[in-house]
TrEMBL record:
<protein>
    <submittedName>
        <fullName>Starch synthase, chloroplastic/amyloplastic</fullName>
    </submittedName>
</protein>
<feature type="domain" description="Glycosyl transferase family 1">
    <location>
        <begin position="36"/>
        <end position="119"/>
    </location>
</feature>
<dbReference type="GO" id="GO:0016757">
    <property type="term" value="F:glycosyltransferase activity"/>
</dbReference>
<dbReference type="InterPro" id="IPR001296">
    <property type="entry name" value="Glyco_trans_1"/>
</dbReference>
<keyword id="KW-0035">Amyloplast</keyword>
<feature type="coiled-coil region">
    <location>
        <begin position="157"/>
        <end position="204"/>
    </location>
</feature>
<dbReference type="GO" id="GO:0009501">
    <property type="term" value="C:amyloplast"/>
</dbReference>
<keyword id="KW-0808">Transferase</keyword>
<keyword id="KW-0934">Plastid</keyword>
<keyword id="KW-0328">Glycosyltransferase</keyword>
<dbReference type="Pfam" id="PF00534">
    <property type="entry name" value="Glycos_transf_1"/>
</dbReference>
<dbReference type="GO" id="GO:0009507">
    <property type="term" value="C:chloroplast"/>
</dbReference>
<keyword id="KW-0175">Coiled coil</keyword>
Length: 231
């Protein structure tokens, strides 16, 4: 086991003590050294990355490019970039996996995943080589990421265009309904005006009739002349 990095003093002390207790099996280097980290990762069989959280993660990407198989906590970018080893998948398929992830972030889950990886490494060398090839052949470039972003943006733009077209269609339908309603109201107003005009004409006729007959039709059959003579 090779440990490189700096951190909490109790962790550093524990790693240094492990190196003293097992000098042929543990090497601890408590410093930040990027070039050395790449050499260590490239020379190992397995990268252990039990991060509690990892927004993206670079070490697992470096490891897979070097053919070093990651065993990592299933979180953030680690979950997104490592395909779990699946012994039931087609041996020639990428679904066969590129490493191991574990959850929850517990010692037991970590040990189980690491034990499974070591078992394949020790007992199935051909399978391990295929696992390394799958990990190394992955396209983890920015070109692939950019193409995926293009797909997302194109989908968003398509949704916006569909929404805009739908709103325009609904707006056209609403405008057509409004125009039809206005025409209906105008027709009703015209009919009401015609009815009012007709009623006015009938009222004028009635007034003329009454004016013409008031000299001839008096109470009891008398005429206006009879009333004048009586006066």
């Amino acid at each position: 086991v090779v440990v490189l990095g700096s951190g909490a003093q109790d962790y550093e002390a524990a790693m240094k003590q492990a190196q003293l207790d097992y000098p042929y099996f543990v090497r601890c280097i408590t410093k930040f050294d990027v070039p050395l980290s790449h050499r260590i990762i490239a020379s190992c069989d397995i990268l252990m990355m039990p991060s509690r959280f990892e927004p993206c993660g670079l070490n697992q990407l470096f490891a897979m490019r070097y053919g070093t198989i990651p065993v990592a906590h299933s979180t953030g970018g680690l979950r997104d970039t490592i395909d779990d080893y699946n012994t039931f998948a087609d041996p020639g398929s990428r679904d066969r996996g590129t490493g191991w992830t574990f959850s929850p972030a517990s010692l037991e889950a970590f040990v189980d995943a690491l034990t499974a990886a070591i078992k394949v490494l020790q007992e199935q060398p051909g399978e391990w080589r295929a696992l390394q090839r799958r990990a190394m052949q992955q396209d983890l470039s920015w070109g692939k990421a950019a193409r995926q972003y293009e797909i997302v943006y194109a989908g968003v733009m398509r949704q916006q265009q569909e929404k805009r077209a739908d709103l325009e269609a609904k707006g056209s339908q609403a405008l057509a309904r409004q125009e039809a309603q206005l025409k209906l109201e105008a027709a009703e107003a015209e009919r009401a005006a015609a009815a009012a005009k007709k009623a006015e004409a009938e009222a004028k006729v009635l007034v003329l009739v009454l004016e013409a007959g008031k000299d001839r039709l008096m109470p009891g059959g008398a005429t206006q002349a009879d009333f004048n003579q009586a006066d």
